[in-house]
Amino acid sequence: MSRPATLAQAVILNAELATWPGAIEREVARPVLEIGGRPFIAWQMRELQRYGVEEFLIVSGPLSQDVQEVLAHAADLLPKPASLRFATTPSDVGSAGALRHAAPQLAERFLLVNGTCLFATNFAALLRDFATDGPETLARLLLTELPDTSGHTVAQINAGHVVHLDPAPPATDPGLVHSGIAAIDRRLVEFCPPSGSLRREVLPNLAATGHLRATMAAGFFVDIARPTDLQTARYELEPVLQRPSLFLDRDGVLNHDHGYVGSRERFHWIDGALDALKLATDHGWLVFIVTNQSGVGRGLYSEQDVTGLMRWIADEARRHGGTIDDWRICPYHPEATVPAYRRESEWRKPRPGMILNLITTWELAPSHCLLVGDQTIDLEAARNAGIRGEIFPGGNLADFLHPLLLFRGR
User: Fold this and answer.
1) What residues have CB less than 8 Å from 368, skipping those under 6 apart?
2) Which residues are catalytic?
3) How far apart are CA 112 and CA 410, in angstroms?
4) Strand (E) or helix (H) holding 216
5) DSSP of 149-204, one letter per residue?
6) String of DSSP letters for 87-113
7) How many CB atoms lie within 10 A of CB 34?
8) Per residue in 321-375, pLDDT tens?
């Protein structure tokens, strides 16, 4: 059985968080600086949640009460529930030593994120590639090309392998740089000294011994440890991350509607559906599913069955290079056989409750939203929510969606 593409844990590593005893606006506290109305780290977490991250582990030296409160506030701002934990490490052990100290709290496979870096791109490519890597791969770096690599770690690659890392490249030279995001196998900790640097020691050694691979991506990248990037983030980060949003009905759009589909065995993808999810993600759209599931109310399967199926659908999307950011289901029906579900609901299409809840939760602009369904009740729900709706007539979903993805409501 293949392993999941989704990595549920993100480890945010930045020792700078521990170095300031006073006001949080000090330069070294950049991960918790307010940018676009929320702490910078909240934007990081939000982007990672899009790809299934459910737990954030902050690895740092001792944190003041002020910082812990800011981090808790950042987690509260997220559109989906998340676990926030801390791994306190000595302040003088460097990034490699800090990761070693945090080893008991690390998942078997996790995302490692630099606390000052944000890369608005499609992370699914990294997850897809890491899911198929062999046991010799201990880390897979997400790389991007920059015209000026000064201050970054520059990578040289050959057939997908990182063969050399330079943590101090010549100023102003173009090249491939490490974005501060990597997929990690916990066995990497065995290569971390009690004190040392991941960037300067551990990762270059892994490159030299064939344990390091890379995935390339393009997108909006900032490292706010650099003053110029901090200014860029202040002016550009919020509008960049205000993405257009695609709402999809499920049965009849993503999968063939066999009637009350509640298990993997009965779920069969529509032609081009996985390609469509990748296409939307590549184009920078958020992707949501809104689906009536009266099969729950009729006792044919449980809410837990539907949730498990939806998690599998999202993981399959990521394995194919796309994602599903979130979903809403409505198990209620006025004629349900299970009494707990026998009622009218504002979430049941053609009523707009599921759509409106996602718009509120994810802070979406209705003018930048599009719903695709296969029935008139989907169009009615879109209209009732104040967003655009389109009917999918069947055929290849990716072919149908491609021209619509050019629409952003502007």
Assistant:
1) 242, 243, 244, 245, 408, 409, 410
2) 249, 251
3) 35
4) strand 212-216
5) -TTS-EEEEETTEEEEEESSPPTT--EEEEEEEEEEEGGGGGG--SS--IIIIIHH
6) EE--TTSHHHHHHHHTGGG--SEEEEE
7) 13
8) 999 999 999 999 999 999 999 999 999 999 999 999 999 999 999 999 999 999 9
Confidence band (pLDDT; 50, 70, 90) for 410? very low
Cis peptide before 239 (omega within 30 of 0): no
Whether residue 409 is contained in a domain is answered as no
Please choose, from the candidates 12, 104, 2, the residue with its C-alpha nearest in 3D space to the C-alpha of residue 49. Answer: 12
* CA pseudo-torsion sign 161, 163, 168, 172: negative
Residues 114 and 259 in one domain: no
Note whether 61 and 17 are within 8 A (CB): yes
* Verdict on whether the full-model pTM lies above 0.90: yes
Q: Which of 217, 241, 265 is the last residue of a domain?
A: 241
Same domain, 256 and 230: no
* CA nearest neighbour of 202 among 115, 92, 97: 97
Last residue of a domain, one of 206, 241, 276: 241
Sign of CA dihedral 355, 280, 276, 309: negative
pLDDT digits (tens, 9 = 90+) for 174-187: 899 999 999 999 99
Which domain does 381 fall in, by range? 245-404
How far apart, in whole angstroms, are the C-alpha atoms of residue 170 and residue 109? 33
